[in-house]
Amino acid sequence: MIRYRQKKISILFGSLLIVGAWWLPVQAQQSTNAPNQKAVTTEDPTIPIEELELLLKPLTKDELEGEAQGWMFLLKTKVKELSDAEIAVKRKNRELQQSKEAVDALEDAKKALEEAKDTKEKIETEPSPSASVEANDAAVEAQEALKKAQESVEEAVKEEKKTQQDKTLQGAIDQAVESTEEDKNKAKTSDEEVAKVQEQIGTISNKVVTDEQQQKKTEQGLDKAQEKIEEAVEAKTEVKKQVLVNITKLRDERAGLSDRFEVVLEELELKGGDVKLYQKYVNAISGIKVDVTDTQGTWITIVGWLQSKEGGQRWANNIGKCIGIIAGFSILSVILGTVLEKSLGMFPNISVMLGQFLVTLTRQGLFVVGIILGITALEVSIGPLIAMIGAAGFVVAFAFQSTLGNLANGLMILLYKPFDVGDIIEVAGVRGNVQDVNLICTTIKTYQNKIIIVPNNSVWGNVIENETSSPVRAIFITVRVSYHNSITQAIQVLKDIANSHPLVLKDPGPWIDTGELA
């Protein structure tokens, strides 16, 4: 008995240990992976973005994940409402198409009855066997036209009932037309009128036109049926317009939620959160799809987008900002470039080509900055563009090695100033006056009035002779003297000519020597 109790206690204790060993890790995992807290910034979906940024700033990563899920739920709900409204428009288009086909079928039935009536009158005035056959054929055609009209009306009723059975779509329609009681009443009575027309056409189509009185009643019934269906078409068209207007509002609300959701995602990404799936969802549900076959819907969509705050007005504001920023930076670049150019003129040690380079760099650099800021004003992210340019830089570096070499050598020329614009130099076998120097090449005008463009690789990689770098230099002139003339007299004449020139120095004076005989 004691052994049995000990065994029972041991089994119970071991079971408790197993349960505890399993329960503790589970609780630890649940504590580490605790569900995100309830989102607090979603209480007001229209909160200003500036206030939302301030509310998100002190939140931790886990709290921001909860906020992201909350905004994700709001955005998903709004997208569902928008999708239901767009489906409702497509259903209304099908209903309108079926109703218009029913109107056309009724018109054909009326024409068939008129032809049957004319044929009957012809028999009465000119009786003949062929006329009787024509009358029977006309009556059969009229009967078939009535049946076809009945089928068209039945299709219209089926399409109407299909929409009514879908509570979600019907809710989207009711929400769109609840603003005006008249449209709401029309939406409710249009299907009832079509149902009455269906019953009336069915009654007419089961009868054969035999006398003038019945013919008249049939025509009156068709006219009344056509009038009711046309009224139903008009009511459905108004309902469709209201749904399209509501779609524009829903798109504005979706855009507002997307903007605030992206603010949350930016803050979450800064604090180490993974937002790739969220970003893909936002990109997937953005944009507007237009059915160009529906001209009325397309026109209302375009006009509504242009008039909406989150659509046309927003883009007009962004485009205005973009143009203003680019224009402002263009003017600023010209002003700062002019100020810098005048300021550099106060420093004589700065070369002309370096000054031109700095002025050009300032003007073009400010203009490029203005373009980048203008693009950001259009709500276009320049991060991927900069990353793409950086990745393409490696390919460009290999493809344009010589050009990059010229660029580097051009910078060396600008910094070390071996010559300046206007100097007379000889480099790479070219001698002349320096016209221009940029980061890629040097332009030299020779004494033969030729323009020679020398790559900076050839300039910096060769010996540079600058004849105008010093205010004083020696000039060697070769003069040929005939054997019949006196050498002594020729030397004296040359000395007199040199000494009489104002730019020739007295100390050291001109030096004349005889060379080889030729």
Shape: elongated
Major beta sheet, strand line-up: 4-3-2-1-5
Low-confidence stretches: 1-14, 16-36, 202-210
Number of helices: 15
The number of strands is: 5
The end-to-end span amounts to 144 Å
Describe this structure in words.
- Helix 3 packs across helix 5 (167-177) and helix 7 (212-270) runs parallel beside helix 9 (295-307).
- It is elongated, with a radius of gyration of 46 Å.
- The protein contains 15 helices and 5 strands.
- It is mainly alpha-helical and 518 residues long.
- Strand 2 (430-437) and strand 3 form a beta hairpin.
- The protein folds into 5 domains: 1-34; 61-307; 314-399, Helix Hairpins; 415-466, SH3 type barrels; 474-518, no CATH class.
- Strands 4-3-2-1-5 form a 5-stranded antiparallel beta sheet.
